[in-house]
Structure to design on (617 residues):
């Protein structure tokens, strides 16, 4: 573990730029200019403009005013008979065309060199806050109206009606946002985004997962990033340490370059062993599979030496669209993945939507606790037709390669039976059309809810395989929202309660001859993976980029030693003590992998911090 002791969060680090501490979300070190994305409301890049662009931005503003006026007029007309709503809309109409607003926006464009979107947001926020400071309650309330008008103008400028604004970045930049929806993150693939920083999130939140899938360095959970970083600021983003430097000096820039180079050297060194089998020091075989989000990643998975796909997160098929993908469209995507994986198994997970993976295809209900609500298999079973189409696509894909179907967030045996019934129906429909399918399609469950872990013996007897999802298992066992940055330090898979559940699931699998894998982030960390082998796990699935590291880490320890470590870990009362045990036993021989640097030499200030979310731990 190599997190350098840094000055307090947000404190200037003399003599260089100020350093913000976050959580290492995706590996890599990168420098570049910031593009800040407004996110509470409609998203847009806060772009600084050149004097020559003032006219264009002013014209964009004028066009947005006309569009919003036309919209409001349309709404007023549709309210036949007028009424209070019509008079409110009439007031908005006046506000949109108001000279004070135009004046304020003009000043923002001209004097502060801000693009029209940013100018409107800044001008309306300033007018609204002036109104909110007035004593008269009537005038105070007009602040909300100005906000509303600003929001509509910003949307008109972006030409979008949905709140899932796609990130549009044209130059290589580091995106800074409060949070990024899956749609935003997916859009980064085509944009010139070289890194990103979010204020919320943890290592297992969807933003970090997507960043790793796209191999974009990221730091998440950076408190106050939006307040401290402005578009155009030069940044150094260190996705290994979880730090962001604002306005780095030459020395800091050079150090970042060196670290980026060393990380690349390590990855290419580890990559040389990709063709070799994964075995422990005493020759025990461990099967490493890949977690993928995007079909293109299947190639990356193979390039990194994956022996199959242990988790294909299909929910991202539903991102950035208003209607769900058709059965044929899904089949096309699945067949690409299968083709790329050759004869290796591909574990396709039924879409896990809801919780922190909010996707606009589904009009999900407003819930007080979405993580405990209509999510994953519950949502799938409540949308039977969509689930049927999804499963038909998987059934048809099974004729093209080794498909395994996996159910997310199973909490009861009834859910397994219910999905099995829908799968039988999907197979019957495919068969009735005369379309081919495999003779047997394994149906497995994810163990990520404590109830399922406690019932693992029953699941092991009924399911074809089990895969432990530690990201959610930690969340639900310890009652810690996995996206909550403030609690991230508590969310450890080394917590003894979590370890007992994992141990129980692996044992149940062994007793009932039911294969067990683990596809949570724990498997992507060298210490976690080694501990899991000690618990008896021989198959795990992780982000492709982690495979070479884990392969190398496994070579450096023997099974009896790891079994002894696992037994000792189960005796310990706290996560911190388990982590300390692992660090003491394993860190000296894993230093290069843990630091992300070959021939790493500790500088004395480094050392494991229990529960640390930074470094490769
Ligand atoms: C998990 O919960 O560990 C898991 C792998 O699923 P996801 O992260 O997609 O919820
Ligand atoms: Mg999960």
């Amino acid at each position: 573990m190599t997190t350098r002791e840094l000055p307090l969060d947000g404190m200037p680090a003399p003599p260089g730029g100020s350093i913000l501490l976050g959580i290492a979300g995706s590996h890599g070190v990168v420098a570049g200019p910031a593009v800040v994305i407004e996110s509470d409301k409609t998203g847009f890049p806060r772009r600084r403009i050149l004097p020559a662009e003032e006219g264009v931005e002013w014209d964009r503003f004028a066009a947005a005013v006309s569009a919003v006026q036309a919209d409001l007029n349309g709404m007023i007309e549709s309210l036949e008979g007028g009424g209070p709503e019509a008079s409110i809309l009439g007031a908005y109409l006046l506000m949109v065309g108001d000279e004070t607003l135009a004046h304020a926006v003009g000043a923002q464009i001209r004097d502060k060199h801000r693009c029209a979107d940013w100018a409107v947001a800044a001008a309306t926020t300033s007018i609204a806050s002036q109104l909110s400071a007035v004593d008269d309650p009537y005038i105070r309330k007009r602040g909300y109206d100005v906000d509303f008008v600003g929001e509509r103008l910003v949307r008109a400028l972006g030409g979008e009606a949905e709140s899932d604004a796609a990130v549009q970045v044209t130059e290589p930049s580091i995106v800074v946002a409060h949070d990024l929806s899956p749609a935003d993150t997916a859009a980064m693939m085509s944009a010139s985004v070289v890194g990103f920083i979010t204020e919320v999130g943890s290592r297992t939140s969807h933003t970090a997962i997507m960043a790793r899938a796209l191999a974009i360095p990221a730091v998440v959970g950076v408190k106050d990033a939006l307040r401290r970083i402005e578009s155009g600021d030069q940044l150094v983003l260190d996705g290994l340490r979880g730090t962001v430097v604002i306005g780095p000096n030459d020395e800091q820039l050079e150090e970042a370059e060196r670290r980026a180079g060393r990380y690349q050297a390590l990855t290419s060194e580890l990559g040389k062993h990709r063709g070799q089998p994964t075995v422990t020091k005493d020759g025990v075989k461990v099967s490493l599979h890949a977690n993928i989000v995007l079909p293109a990643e299947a190639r990356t998975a193979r390039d990194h030496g994956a022996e199959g796909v242990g988790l294909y997160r299909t929910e991202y098929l539903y991102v950035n669209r208003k209607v769900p993908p058709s059965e044929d469209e899904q089949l096309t995507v699945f067949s690409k993945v299968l083709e790329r994986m050759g004869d290796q198994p591909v574990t396709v997970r039924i879409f896990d939507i809801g919780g922190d993976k909010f996707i606009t295809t589904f009009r999900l209900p407003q819930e007080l606790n979405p993580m405990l609500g209509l999510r994953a298999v519950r949502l799938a079973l409540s949308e039977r037709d969509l689930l049927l189409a999804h499963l038909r696509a998987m059934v048809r894909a099974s004729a093209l390669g080794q498909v395994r179907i996996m159910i997310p967030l199973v909490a009861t045996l009834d859910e397994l039976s219910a999905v099995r019934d829908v799968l039988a129906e999907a197979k019957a429909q495919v068969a009735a059309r005369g379309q081919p399918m495999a003779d047997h399609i394994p149906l497995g469950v994810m163990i990520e809810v404590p109830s399922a872990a406690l019932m693992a013996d029953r699941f092991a007897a009924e399911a074809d395989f089990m895969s432990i999802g530690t990201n959610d298992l930690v969340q639900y066992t310890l009652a810690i929202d996995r996206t909550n940055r403030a609690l991230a330090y508590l969310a450890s898979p080394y917590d003894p309660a979590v370890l007992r559940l994992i141990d129980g699931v692996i044992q149940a699998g062994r007793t009932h001859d039911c294969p067990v894998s683990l596809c949570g982030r724990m498997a992507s960390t060298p210490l976690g993976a080694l501990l899991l082998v000690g618990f008896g796990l021989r198959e795990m699935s992780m982000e492709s980029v982690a495979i070479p590291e884990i392969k190398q880490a496994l070579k450096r320890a023997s099974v009896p030693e790891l079994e002894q470590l696992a037994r000792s870990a189960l005796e310990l009362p706290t996560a911190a003590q388990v982590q300390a045990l692992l660090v003491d036993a394993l860190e000296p021989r894993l230093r290069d992998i843990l630091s992300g640097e070959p021939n790493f030499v500790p500088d004395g200030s480094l050392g494991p911090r229990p529960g640390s979310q930074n470094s490769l731990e």
Summary: Residues 204, 311, 313, 352, 448, 469-472, 519-520 surround phosphoenolpyruvate (ligand 1) (CB under 6 Å). Residues 1-14, 160-166, 600-617 have pLDDT under 50 and may be disordered.
